[in-house]
Write a structure and sequence with these properties.
heterodimer, A: about 110 residues, alpha+beta, 4-stranded antiparallel beta sheet, 3 helices, rod-shaped, B: about 230 residues, mainly beta, 11-stranded mixed barrel, two-stranded antiparallel sheet, globular
Chain lengths: ~110, ~230
């Protein structure tokens, strides 16, 4: 009888410890999620010197979803970083490029 | 005649893009002149006339291989300069500007007309002669750094200027009017929105009416800020 009770207590202990362990390292997700910012690269035609950067960068920065922008006339590209959690419409970027008197090409990245 | 005149010019320019194809340009030359006449030397330093221009983009084609732009320019020159440097009249400057860029190469062509004294007369009631000028330039850019924010470009400019003689009461005024062909080597340094240009104007050929002084080699410095 005593052996039976002891075995039952041992089994109960395993069951309780096991469930506690499952709570700590179970398959549930972490409550804190990291949102990474996205960087896109667009082709831009018409920039021919460093002086061209300022105008197009200023226009892109007016778009609410844009965190930062960097133009490179030599590589004919525009690197746009999107604010975390925001949605950036490619058409808004193309329109800003046209307003700067340049022509958008493809989105490279 | 024992006269020599050495003239140096610093052109300060501010350009502002109002719309995608409209740029406002303000140019204020600062001049320094040394004249030696009959053994006596005089020196003057001061502002020349202020020029306010509007550049309107008529046509622009941007491709992966090249960019071609054609613009019309209309400028108004105010007689605000120091006496020795001022034309003393209100002058209008219409012109056409064509630019072509491909990779690191760039070429500009400009044809301009200066309608001097369109609204008034000059000193002594004279109608100042108008001016026609043609300019062609070629440059090659060398960039520095991965972000290419700084460039240095050697430049070669060839300019032809013809100034018509002044007229007074319908008659041509003697010793006015000239034609000059300049060859101007130089360098252009671009630091983001600030551009520094150094040119040395060399009169390769010239023809002045009467006893006017010949043009001599003249260095020019330009500072341009674009915003």
């Amino acid at each position: 009888m005593i052996r039976y009770i002891f075995l039952m207590m041992l089994l109960g202990g395993f069951l309780m410890g096991g469930s506690a362990y499952a709570k700590i390292v179970g398959p549930e997700k972490s409550s804190v999620e990291q949102v990474a910012s996205e960087t896109r690269v667009y082709e831009v035609f018409g920039m021919d010197c460093p002086g061209c950067h300022g105008g197009v960068e200023k226009l892109l920065k007016k778009i609410a979803a844009v965190q930062s922008v960097e133009a490179n006339w030599k590589k004919k590209i525009l690197m746009v970083t999107v604010k975390p959690g925001e949605t950036l419409n490619d058409e808004d970027v193309y329109e800003a490029i046209r307003l700067a008197n340049f022509s958008p090409g493809k989105r490279l990245q | 005649m024992g006269r020599t005149v050495d003239r140096y010019t610093v052109n300060t320019v501010i350009a502002y893009g109002v719309r995608r194809n409209i740029t406002l340009i303000l140019k204020q030359p600062i001049m320094h002149q040394e004249m030696i006449m009959a053994g006596s030397k005089s020196t003057n330093t001061g502002l020349s006339d202020l020029l306010f221009s509007t550049k309107y983009g008529i046509y622009r084609r941007n491709t992966p291989q090249y960019t071609l732009g054609i613009s019309a320019i209309l400028g108004l020159e105010f007689p605000t300069g120091m006496n020795v440097f001022s034309k003393d009249t209100w002058n209008m400057h219409p012109g056409v500007y064509v630019s072509w860029r491909s990779g690191n190469w760039g070429s500009d062509f400009n044809i301009a007309y200066a309608w001097n004294g369109f609204a008034d007369k000059g000193r002594g009631g004279m109608n100042p002669g108008h001016q026609v000028s043609l300019d062609v330039s070629l440059a090659h850019q060398f960039s520095f750094g991965a972000k290419a924010r700084k460039t240095v470009a050697p430049v070669l400019e060839v300019s032809y200027k013809h100034i018509f003689a002044d007229r007074l009461q319908g008659q041509t005024v003697a010793n006015t009017g000239e034609s000059v062909l300049y060859i101007s080597p130089g360098v252009k340094v671009t630091l983001s929105s600030l551009i520094l240009e150094l040119l040395v104007q060399i009169p390769a050929w010239q023809d002045q009416e009467g006893t006017q002084l010949k043009r001599s080699i003249a260095p020019m410095v330009g500072l341009r800020y674009m915003f």
